[in-house]
Backbone:
């Protein structure tokens, strides 16, 4: 009997053990399933139409963006790659993502076999150059990894990366193995980029190093590199694209190197590690040693995937809509391609003063498309990447010290001065007002103030007249409105610092938007030097790229660019009813923008242009006049009709993450309409649940109950941390404190939510 009890006990223990193990495995599997968010990322989204997104292998915010470059040129190839193209010139280590200007495409490697002409070549004739055709079916792309088969050469290519190192794997198949070679191409660049000097040297039997100097959008670009091969070099040949040169090194404007390897009767594998540096070849070598001393390609690929998963898990969403999952996590992935690291592991970087520097205590960055990203991408960073913001701001302050002003559109140490306004000021002011620390606040304030008081880019006239005269400069209205909103953010920092004179001065400047408003016709328009509006009748539909009073837009789109003082704009229209009537019209009225309209004006709903950033805040303006249901309607329509999980799924340039950041924040249910400070206006959450990892064990949970129907787009009521919440907005402090925000959704607009004046978002003066 006793024996039977023991056996029974042992069996029971075994069953319990197996049950626990099964439960543990299920739990582990569930965890892994939740953690693996890269499976929802589709890098093809945005590679079609005018998305201009990067295609290839990288890690979050990495200096290396290693991917294929097509031989095609033009606006849709600003990233070097477009879904319509089936050519590959080679694999470059630096690319832009989503911008409207082509540059970079530096340090191109191309595995080849047989006789190859060292030039780009022309479409339809592979023998005219070094490019190869490929079939889309052989392409594999996931975050941190890219693979393709080169048809012409019968070579399989795989790519992955660390922060500063690109890792190549080439499989020479069949006859290709009999003559395996790798071409190092220092001539190729994307669109406007052109080499000024290249240098190559074979250092030993496995190492080739060099540099590429070029000019383009970035007028003085410098990239140094070292390439280490997995097997000895059999022969090394140098060319200036005209003739072969003797020796182991060459300096010329156009430089090519051909690396030969021993032949094989069966397939041959060659690995290449390419480290880059903005400072020196020695810096590149240190980067290589620090980040990729070994040769385990699979390990590096897996580490890149884990790095992406770590960042993507900053926001964990729940939805039954697979399209939303793909759009959301692809969008989040896009927001983390740039800003990109621009320093060596020892802190060395190339400064805006064209000198080498060392960053101490912070990581230096580049690729600041601030006219785009100050609106949503950087506010998103203050929530999910607050640890990065001090580095971003310290980089901007270093740029200020080196060039005498804050960055406008900064690329690889160069100020391009692209776009209009003072867009770095809202970014720094936003971080300052949100309490982010880790930078010199006195220096930050002086940098903002100095940049706002310069005499360049129309600021001299702005200070003297209180507006920008349209007969002395183009894009005057856009410039003036952007300066005004930047001034408002600076005024708020001055207020925080108890600097009354500065506050009064910049607040007054921030209200200069009223000078451009013609009450007779209800549009912002150009003002002459004599203070009068242009005499000719205004065509509010007309857009003339870089030739009229607006930047990539028209009067219909720019009349609303007053996010700093919505109530002031409402008063200019004559009251809420007139404002609402005009705002309603924006989304339905249609007209001819003319033959010279900017290509960036895309994603039209009426005259609302979602494909370009000055429109991004407009749908949320309805909440300021007590009609949040109209905000919900417009926002939900934009998310579901202008974002798709297809290559053409972004209706305009991705613009360094801004287009995607708008989707991310809108899908969560709120948007930073004010240009700084942290007021987020509610819209129409697209998810059912989201958990934002705030760090330090804190989370902010968003629930949208009854949000499982396409018709349930309207917020009925809200609760915050278990208490009724009647306002149609939320503050940054409430989010980063952690807690739970619950939206109750419905198919009919609420008659009370967000209607009262006290429940509406209000501009701060």
Residues:
């Amino acid at each position: 009997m006793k024996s039977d009890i023991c056996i029974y006990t042992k069996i029971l223990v075994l069953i319990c053990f197996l049950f626990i193990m099964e439960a543990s495995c299920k739990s582990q599997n569930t965890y892994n399933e939740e953690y693996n968010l890269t499976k929802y990322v589709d890098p093809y989204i945005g590679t079609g139409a005018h998305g201009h997104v990067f295609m290839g292998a990288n890690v979050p915010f990495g200096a290396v963006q290693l991917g294929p470059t097509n031989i095609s040129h033009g606006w849709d190839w600003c990233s070097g790659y477009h879904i319509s193209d089936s050519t590959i010139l080679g694999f470059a280590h630096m690319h832009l993502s989503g911008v409207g200007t082509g540059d970079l495409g530096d340090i191109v490697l191309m595995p080849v076999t047989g006789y190859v002409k060292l030039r780009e070549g022309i479409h339809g004739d592979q023998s005219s150059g070094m490019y190869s055709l490929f079939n889309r079916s052989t392409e594999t792309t996931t975050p941190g990894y890219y693979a393709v088969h080169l048809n012409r050469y019968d070579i399989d290519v795989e790519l992955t990366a660390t922060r500063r190192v690109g890792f190549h794997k080439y499989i020479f198949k069949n006859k290709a193995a009999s003559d395996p070679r790798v071409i190092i191409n220092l001539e190729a660049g994307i669109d406007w980029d052109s080499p000024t000097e290249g240098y190559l040297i074979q250092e030993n039997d496995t190492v080739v190093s060099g540099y590429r100097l070029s000019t383009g959008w970035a007028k003085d670009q410098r990239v140094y590199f070292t390439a280490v091969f997995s097997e000895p070099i059999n022969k090394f040949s140098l060319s200036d694209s005209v003739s072969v040169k003797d020796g182991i090194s060459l300096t010329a404007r156009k430089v090519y190197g051909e690396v030969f390897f021993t032949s094989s009767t069966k397939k041959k594998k060659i690995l290449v590690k390419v480290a880059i540096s903005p400072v020196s070849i020695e810096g590149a070598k240190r980067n290589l040693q620090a980040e990729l001393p070994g040769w385990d390609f699979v390990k590096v690929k897996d580490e890149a995937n884990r790095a992406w998963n770590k960042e993507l898990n900053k926001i964990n969403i729940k939805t039954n809509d697979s399209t939303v999952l793909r759009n959301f996590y692809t969008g989040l992935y896009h927001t983390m391609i740039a800003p990109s690291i621009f320093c060596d592991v020892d802190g060395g970087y190339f400064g805006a003063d064209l000198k080498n520097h060392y960053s101490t205590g912070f990581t230096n960055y580049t690729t600041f498309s601030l006219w785009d990203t100050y609106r949503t991408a950087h506010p998103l960073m203050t929530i999910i990447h607050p640890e990065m913001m001090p580095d971003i701001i310290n980089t901007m302050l270093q740029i200020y010290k080196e060039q005498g002003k804050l960055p406008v559109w900064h690329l690889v140490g160069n100020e391009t001065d692209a776009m209009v306004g003072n867009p770095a000021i809202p970014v720094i002011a936003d971080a300052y007002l949100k309490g982010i620390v880790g930078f010199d606040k006195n220096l930050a304030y002086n940098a903002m103030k100095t940049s706002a008081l310069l005499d360049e880019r129309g600021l001299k006239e702005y200070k003297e007249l209180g507006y920008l005269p349209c007969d002395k400069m183009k894009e005057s209205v856009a410039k003036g409105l952007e300066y005004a909103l930047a001034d408002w953010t600076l005024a708020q920092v001055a207020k925080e610092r108890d600097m009354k004179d500065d506050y009064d001065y910049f607040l007054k400047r921030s209200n200069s938007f009223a000078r451009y408003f013609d009450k007779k016709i209800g549009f912002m328009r150009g003002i002459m030097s004599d203070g009068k509006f242009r005499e000719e009748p205004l065509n509010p539909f007309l857009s003339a790229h870089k030739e009229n009073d607006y930047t990539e837009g028209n009067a219909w789109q720019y009349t609303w660019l007053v996010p700093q003082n919505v109530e002031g704009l409402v008063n200019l229209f004559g009251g809420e009813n007139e404002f609402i009537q005009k705002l309603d019209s924006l989304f339905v009225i249609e007209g001819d923008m003319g033959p010279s309209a900017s290509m960036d004006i895309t994603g039209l709903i009426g005259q609302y242009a979602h494909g370009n950033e000055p429109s991004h805040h407009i749908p949320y303006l309805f909440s300021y006049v007590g009609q949040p249901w109209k905000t919900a309607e417009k926002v939900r329509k934009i998310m579901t009709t202008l974002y798709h999980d297809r290559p053409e799924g972004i209706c305009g340039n991705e613009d360094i993450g801004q287009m995607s950041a708008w989707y991310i924040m809108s899908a969560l249910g709120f948007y930073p309409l004010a240009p700084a400070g942290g007021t987020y206006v509610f819209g129409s959450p697209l998810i059912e649940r989201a958990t934002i990892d705030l760090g330090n064990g804190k989370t902010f949970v968003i629930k949208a109950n009854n949000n499982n129907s396409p018709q349930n787009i309207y917020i009925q009521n809200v609760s915050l941390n278990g208490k009724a919440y009647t306002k149609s907005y939320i503050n940054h402090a409430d989010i980063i404190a952690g807690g739970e925000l619950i939206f109750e959704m419905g198919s009919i607009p609420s008659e009370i939510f967000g209607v009262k004046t006290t429940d509406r978002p209000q501009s701060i003066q």
